[in-house]
Every structure is written in structure tokens, then in C-alpha cells.
Write a structure and sequence with these properties.
336 residues; mainly alpha; Hypothetical protein af1432; two-stranded parallel ribbon; 16 helices; 52% helix
């Protein structure tokens, strides 16, 4: 089963694009937008190619597994709708207050040492206002989805997957501010959910049956390893989960395309979600670079055709910004 759009006319990348290649392709851009040195920071520079088609038999098994899983609670869906409609934090606080366990979790996170409060917050509405929409969205999503996606033994560290998702969500919102005509809410939501397929595959990739991950450094990249070990990648798993949970079509498409900037021209991604996907891809790259690797330590610079989507800054400058440092420090210091 092929979840991937036809890219037979797409010339695949044989090696990561260097700064010199970018300058030759886009001489008017100084400095080049994709000037991040992948040899520094966390993770490894990896060549990425389009993954193989998923195995039909495994996809069928995965669909049965998903059908038997508990679905997200009404609170999560109502809050996603509230965020999409840009409801006030007061309104969002009222929704959260209807779920006692979720309200307690919001208060716990709001009172984390990372926020440096002089007096504890005991009111949900004040906690929500203090945390900000992105951190509230992230905390709510983890609380509501963790039961459905949780397990005791798996290949990926579930805590690291959630920290990575939260970091990418926060970073995607920041990156979206530099990308023309980018919907910051959709970018932040996609950043939070882009790798949820890995949480689903975690129930299949058991540590007791794993072979060494020696294919990480092979030219085909990490998703080929996922497909080899299970029968599909986290992309297909995430798309199936998103469809089953009736997530918005833009999020389903965003999950489907969120790795495409590594190996396919911008024109391959639907224009309606292209900018948001690019923002999430850059956020994902920065998160891995800055010690929030999640499920994969592999990094690849975007295809040069996306250069126009970052017209006024560069990935390196975003990494060096105070906003990024502050946001990631808060996530690092908070016990989610």
C-alpha cells in the first residue's frame, strides 16, 4: 500500500545540501537560509530518500489495532476546536476545569520550578493564562492521548517522544512567524502530532525482539529502517491514527508530508499546507539539533526549493534566538 504521492519525476537527493550548493542555486540569498551546521549539536547528518510502500498485511493489522484502541476524550476534541477558533484563555480554562484530572495536571505543570513562581497558582484559569496557549495545548494533548498510546515496553522512549513533540510544537509556532502566510495554530498543532505514528509503532517495536539499529547510517535513512522492522513507517501509522480519530484534513495531510522537505521539491506538497509543513520540518530539525531528538537522531537540511519560505532569516539565526533558548529551557526543566 502506497501512502506517498507519485514522485516519479522528482530527482531525489543523493547527499545533504551544503551551504555552497545553496549559494549556487540561490545566489541572491545571503546568507543562505539553510546554513545550519549539521556536524554540530545533537543527532547525525543523514541522507534521506522516499520510504518504500507499506506492507498491506501489516497495515491491515495496524487498522485492527487502532480500531480497538480508546479514542481521545471529548475534552481533547473540544479544546482542539477552541484553540482553532482562537477562543480566549478564560474559555479554555473553563473547559479544562470540567475534567478534574486534567485540571490537576495543568496546575502541576503551571507550578513547575521552570516558571519561577513566587506564589503557587491554585486557579485553573490563572494557570492557563500563565502557561500560554502552546504549553496548555501540549499538556492537554499528552494527558488525553497518553492512555491510548501508552505501553510498558517498547523501542522508543515514550517520555522522549512527548518531549520532542512538545519542543517541535513550540518551535513550529516560533518558526511560523518567519514563514510568509503560515498559520501558526496549524503549525503548532501539527508539530505536536507529527510523530504520533511512532507512539503507535512503539507497541510493535518491542525491545526484546529488536536488532541493532545499524541502518541509521545507511544512505536510505531512518524511515527505511522503520519500514524494514515493522512493515510501514511512522508516517503511515500516524495517518491511519489521525483518520481514525477524525482529526482535521489539514493535520492528516501535514502528517503525511512532514518528512517531504528532506527529499522532495516544495511543489510536491499541497499548497494549502506547504508552509505549515515546512515550519514543522525546520522545527523538527532544530529540536534534534538542540537535544530533543525524540524517536530519530537523523537530520537533513531542507530541499533548496523551500528557500523562499524563509526570506528574512536563517535556521542558524533561529537556533541562536533568545525565544528558542527560553522555550526549550522551559520544556527541559518541566516534568511533563
Amino acid at each position: 500500500m502506497n501512502f506517498w504521492p507519485a514522485t516519479s519525476n522528482v530527482k531525489h537527493i543523493d547527499e545533504p545540501f551544503s551551504n555552497e550548493m545553496l549559494e549556487q542555486s540561490y545566489p541572491e540569498i545571503m546568507p543562505p537560509p539553510f546554513n545550519l551546521d549539521l556536524t554540530d549539536g545533537e543527532g547525525i547528518s543523514a541522507i534521506t530518500q522516499e520510504p518504500p510502500a507499506a506492507d498491506d498485511a501489516f497495515i491491515s493489522q495496524l487498522q485492527q489495532r487502532i480500531a480497538a484502541m480508546p479514542k481521545p476524550s471529548w475534552v481533547w476534541h473540544e479544546l482542539q476546536s477552541a484553540f482553532a477558533q482562537h477562543q480566549s484563555m478564560r474559555k479554555i480554562g473553563k473547559i479544562i476545569a470540567q475534567d478534574t484530572m486534567l485540571a490537576a495536571e495543568i496546575l502541576r505543570v503551571a507550578n513547575a520550578p521552570a516558571f519561577g513562581l513566587l506564589k503557587p497558582i491554585t486557579d485553573v484559569a490563572r494557570a492557563v493564562s500563565h502557561m500560554g496557549s502552546n504549553l496548555v495545548r501540549s499538556t492537554v494533548t499528552r494527558h488525553c492521548l497518553d492512555n491510548a498510546l501508552n505501553h510498558h515496553v517498547g523501542f522508543y522512549d515514550q517520555q522522549m517522544l512527548w518531549r520532542h513533540a512538545i519542543a517541535v510544537s513550540v518551535l513550529a509556532e516560533l518558526v511560523a512567524g518567519y514563514v510568509p502566510h503560515c498559520n501558526t495554530h496549524e503549525a503548532a498543532t501539527l508539530g505536536l502530532l507529527h510523530d504520533m505514528g511512532r507512539m503507535l509503532l512503539n507497541q510493535t517495536l518491542k525491545t526484546s525482539t529488536m536488532t541493532p539499529v545499524n541502518s541509521l547510517l545507511e544512505p536510505k535513512g531512518y524511515m527505511h529502517w522503520e519500514a524494514m522492522m515493522t512493515g510501514c513507517t511512522h508516517i503511515e501509522a500516524g495517518v491511519l491514527l489521525a483518520i481514525n480519530w477524525k482529526l482535521p484534513g489539514t493535520i492528516v495531510q501535514g502528517i503525511r508530508f512532514h518528512h517531504h522537505p528532506a527529499y522532495a521539491p516544495a511543489q510536491v506538497i499541497p499548497e494549502t499546507i506547504r508552509n505549515e509543513v515546512f515550519a514543522v520540518y525546520v522545527a523538527d530539525l532544530i529540536a534534534i539539533q538542540m537535544k530533543f531528538p525524540g524517536g530519530s537522531p537523523c537530520k537533513s537540511l531542507p530541499h533548496p526549493s523551500y528557500a523562499s519560505l524563509l526570506p528574512k532569516t536563517s535556521i542558524q539565526d533561529i537556533c541562536n534566538s533568545k525565544a528558542v533558548s527560553k522555550a526549550l529551557w522551559q520544556i527541559y526543566a518541566t516534568d511533563f
